[in-house]
Design brief:
Chain lengths: 220, 424
């Protein structure tokens, strides 16, 4: 695989299939292992319902309450900036949409390249800010494990290598693109076994939170 | 409690792990925002009080035994173990620095209900013999005497006589077929006897059929505070038995926060069946009476009043507007604290902290958050509806030399009732 084109074909071929398979099966297993634990029957007379409030919290918990925003505005803003940037670049960069179309058959309109480019740059800055905050804030220092830094790198690399490939900062191009694809595959492979699972499980967690409070007549 | 052991503790933790717990731990990204929601962190600045770290014993058991990767790591002996030493270290984190106020549960961006898991983790702490002395004593007194403070019916009987003499009313005791069984808390009986007089007056005014029970008058539940299901179930069963014996349709939980959580939400699950009666907090009953036009008041308090929402009542049970409607009846100059209702800050004494002598200093430090909130709106008096909150507010305000009296909402309503016309 000394030829960059061979490397690119390997990342787009067998390695891609493996990554998708590990991600899909791993994530299914993780979700299964959550739901199979179930919940005990709740005999207390409900004051409100579970389903509606559960779904509502799945959305509303994306926005911090005013008090938390005031106390931890940097956390909230930086988190928003890089999460939104990451999702916009992932789903609205035209070559990404074409790839998704070739795999799933679904497509939608994208954003012009210069806009995606700027969003990617902001996302990179946001992720670096998040890393610095993790290194410096006492609570984050206390909480952080090796996995937190590893996952930061696993998240940062696809954005960085994508930016590098787009701007041809590494040559030849097949090598740059191959590195980008490989970094995404690493992301997919580790996703089901690390805190990256929150991409899916946070919505389950939020549903339970909304449902537990909703049953007691509290909006959470 | 000689048969408590690490293995029993681990089994208790295993038994508590359910789908929500697995979803919560799977979702934590170590963002640390829960710390910003916690008065113990906010007032000390010590990161060890970050709520999610308090749950590490439960998280370790979940990771090692309830995840694929954890089981694989287990084959190579790579999992972090829960040991007696660890639980000893975590005991103050789980008991002294957590009031189970659930503010972090309301803030966590991924939706983790941390309070739900603290409650569960305490089950493991009790079963492994790592619960604080103060709470163990309160729980054993509650089981032995019916009261966490060791009160006997005789003490309450004296209060009843006193109320009857001063109000000229009869306090109904063991009245079969009454609509409402009234429960009290020992704290109220000792510190705030005016509560019993207030409900006697209000219920007489509204024509409510009610009774006390000599079999069971205590609503508080040290079992749910310490995290001992068997103790908690025993205490709840006493209420169910008394209510069933007197054939009441409703049970009224007093001006106490955790008692309401215990009787209203946990009770049926502790005894594993639905109740044959309904449970209300006194504030809910007063609001029903107000809405039905059965409470007629005259005059209003004209000094600047503000209100502390007990966590168990507001954030954990959705009773938020009710107390404000009642305040409207009797307060002409009411101002809410800036963060109130579901985002209110805990007084610092709930979740068993007030029964845990070791936590005394930390409890007062945590109170500084409430103090700051009170200072922002500068009330002349505070109103609340939980005896533990009220005691903490009184002690805290005194500690910081703030001359702000604290009153119970029920008494405030009773003070403004239109006097009944005496028969000619």
């Amino acid at each position: 695989m000394s030829d960059p084109m061979d490397f690119l074909l390997w990342t787009k071929g067998p390695m891609f299939d493996w990554a998708i398979a590990i991600f899909a099966l791993g994530m299914l297993a993780r979700i299964f292992e959550i739901f199979m634990l179930g919940r005990k029957t709740n005999y207390a007379e409900p004051k409100g319902s579970e389903w509606g409030p559960g779904f509502k919290t799945m959305l509303t918990r994306s926005v911090a309450d005013p008090g938390t925003f005031k106390r931890a505005g940097f956390d909230v803003l930086v988190g928003w900036v890089w999460h939104i940037g990451f999702l916009l670049v992932l789903f609205l960069f035209i070559p990404h949409i074409e790839l998704i179309k070739s795999v799933l058959g679904l497509s939608w309109p994208g954003l012009p390249n210069p806009i995606i480019d700027s969003i990617a740059a902001v996302t990179i800055v946001g992720l670096i800010a998040a890393l610095i905050h993790r290194l410096l804030h006492p609570v984050k220092q206390h909480l952080s494990t090796k996995e937190d830094y590893f996952i930061w790198a696993v998240t940062f690399l696809p954005v960085l290598t994508g930016y590098i490939a787009y701007h041809r900062l590494i040559n030849p191009y097949p090598l740059a693109l191959g590195l980008h694809v490989l970094s995404v595959e690493v992301f997919l492979i580790v996703l089901p076994f690390t805190k990256l699972t929150h991409m899916f499980t946070a919505f389950i967690a939020r549903w339970y939170n909304g449902a537990i409070f909703g049953r007691k007549g509290v909006e959470s | 409690m000689s048969d408590l052991s690490l293995e029993r503790g681990l089994n208790a933790l295993r038994a508590e792990i359910d789908a929500p717990v697995a979803a919560f731990f799977s979702s934590c990204v170590h963002c640390g925002l829960c710390a910003q929601a916690c008065h113990f962190y906010v007032e000390t600045g010590d990161p060890k009080y970050t709520p999610i770290t308090k749950l590490e014993p439960l998280r370790r058991v979940w990771e090692a035994e309830f995840t694929i990767l954890g089981r694989i790591k287990g084959l190579f002996g790579l999992n972090e173990k829960v040991t007696d030493e660890m639980l000893e270290e975590w005991e103050p984190l789980l008991y002294d620095s957590c009031t189970m106020c659930a503010r972090c549960s309301m803030i966590c961006p991924v939706g983790n209900d941390l309070q739900y898991m603290i409650r569960k983790t305490r089950e493991g702490m009790v079963a492994s013999g790592h619960a604080p002395e103060g709470l163990i004593n309160a729980a054993s007194r509650a089981v032995r005497t019916g009261s966490p403070m060791g009160l006997k019916w005789r003490t309450l009987e004296v209060q009843i006589k006193h109320v009857e003499t001063s109000s000229g009313l009869t306090v109904p005791v063991d009245k079969e077929g009454a609509d409402y069984l009234v429960l009290l808390s020992s704290m109220e009986i000792i510190n705030f006897p005016e509560y019993l007089e207030a409900i006697s007056k209000i219920f007489d005014h509204a024509g409510l059929s009610w009774t006390l029970s000599t079999d069971c008058y205590e609503a508080t539940n040290a079992g749910i505070q310490i995290g001992g299901k068997d103790i908690a179930a025993t205490l709840v069963q006493r209420i169910v038995d008394a209510a069933t014996k007197l054939r009441v349709k409703n049970v009224i939980s007093p001006e106490c926060g955790h008692a309401y959580t215990a009787v209203r939400w946990e009770g049926p699950n502790l005894i594993e069946k639905a109740y044959p009666f309904k449970v209300y907090h006194i504030v809910e009953v007063l609001e029903q009476l107000r809405a039905a036009g059965k409470i007629k008041t005259e005059g209003k308090e004209m000094d600047r009043l503000s209100m502390h929402d007990p966590c168990n009542l507001a954030r954990k049970s959705g009773v938020i507007q009710e107390q404000r409607n009642l305040m409207d009846l009797v307060a002409g100059n009411f101002v809410d604290l800036n963060e109130h209702g579901r985002y209110q800050w805990c007084c610092g004494a709930g979740g068993g902290v007030s029964s845990n002598e070791r936590a005394e200093e930390l409890k007062m430090t945590a109170f500084k958050k409430k103090k700051a909130q009170i200072e922002e709106v500068e009330p002349e008096r505070m109103v609340t509806m939980c005896a533990t909150c009220r005691t903490q507010l009184e002690e805290g305000l005194e500690e910081f030399n703030m001359d702000i009296p604290v009153v119970g909402l029920t008494e405030l309503i009773a003070d403004h009732l239109v006097e009944k016309k005496k028969p000619a």
